[in-house]
UniProtKB/TrEMBL annotation:
The chain crosses the membrane at residues 20-41. Coiled coil: none annotated. The gene is pilW. It comes from the Bacteria. Keywords: Membrane, Transmembrane, Transmembrane helix. This is Type IV pilus assembly protein PilW. The lineage of its organism: Bacteria, Pseudomonadati, Pseudomonadota, Gammaproteobacteria, Alteromonadales. The keyword Lipid biosynthesis does not apply. It comes from Brumicola pallidula DSM 14239 = ACAM 615.
Length: 293
């Protein structure tokens, strides 16, 4: 057996990658790397969008549930409740609350401008409500004893894209007592990034509904006084608001929303927005209407 190997022949049989093959391989590698990067970027954007949408949905549900829980009790007054503070004429106070579940400007001796207001040209509305409770919308007892109930007036409004609330002692507003030291009348923020807040009021007429207390139509705050003067009673509220996602997510086409009675609302930018709406029956006012049918 010939074990001798010709070295020159061995070198001739060795082959490597040509320049063309290397360039093709690099090009394919770049294409594959680009595709992987694109998928990663797309997944990151999708995840960010999903988080923003989930956060906005959670914020909207939170505020709707909170408003529903507080506004559901509007018009409540039980002068027989042993927890009610009776340092005023509770019969007179009962009549006032029953006839003023929604407060309008110039109905109080103090802070006469306080009241429900219809925003102009699609602007934010202001909601002011009356009820008996042991705290205002901020959680303050306003100087009353623990769990002691009193006449509460709560105001809801938007300022600096924040939905806020402010609570008052109704007896102070009616000029029956001085404001307690704890009642600074400062507002608290219920929810950030609220860009639009609208309210309409469901009214009923005893003569036409035979005590059923079903709203016959919904009106704006500027029509409440006329409705009351013509024998109507407020038995429901509709609330709609727009919440902006707390992120830098943008959409290609600027969104628009139709809120209750208003014309289309178009946000200032192409951010991610979502609208929420609810109808709240004022069960105390419905029971009041039924009992007087």
């Amino acid at each position: 057996m010939n074990l001798f190997i010709n070295k020159s022949s061995q070198k001739k049989n060795q082959k490597g990658f040509t320049l063309v093959e290397i360039m093709i391989s690099m090009a394919l590698g770049l294409v594959i790397a680009g595709a992987v990067i694109q998928i990663m970027v797309s997944n990151s954007v999708t995840e960010k969008l999903n988080r923003a949408m989930a956060s906005t949905q959670e914020s909207g549900r939170f505020i709707i549930n909170r408003l529903r829980g507080e506004i559901l009790m509007v018009g409540l007054y039980d002068q027989m409740n042993p927890k009610l503070n009776i340092n005023v004429d509770v019969v007179d106070e009962n009549n006032f609350v029953r006839n003023h579940p929604i407060i309008l400007p110039n109905q109080f001796a103090v802070r006469t401008s306080l009241g429900a207001v219809q925003g102009s040209s699609g602007g934010n509305d202001t909601l002011v409500v009356s009820l008996q409770s042991n705290m205002d919308c901020r959680g303050y007892a306003l100087g009353y004893l623990n769990e002691e109930e009193f006449y509460v007036v709560n105001e809801y409004f938007v300022a600096d894209n924040k939905l806020k609330c402010r609570g008052f002692d109704g007896r102070y507003l009616r000029g029956q007592k001085v404001a307690d030291g704890h009642n600074s009348h400062n507002s608290i923020t219920l929810l950030d990034d609220v860009t639009n807040f609208q309210v309409t009021y469901g009214i009923t007429d005893l003569a036409s509904t035979a005590g059923s207390a079903i709203p016959t139509r919904f009106i704006t705050a500027d029509g409440i006084q006329l409705a009351i003067d013509t024998g109507k009673t407020i038995v429901a509220l509709r609330i709609a608001l727009v919440v902006r996602a707390d992120s830098d997510i943008t959409v290609k086409t600027k969104p628009f929303f139709r809120l209750l009675n208003e014309a289309n609302y178009v946000p200032d930018d192409n951010g991610l927005y979502k609208s929420f709406e609810t109808t709240i029956t004022l069960r105390n006012m419905k029971n009041f209407v039924r009992s007087n049918a």
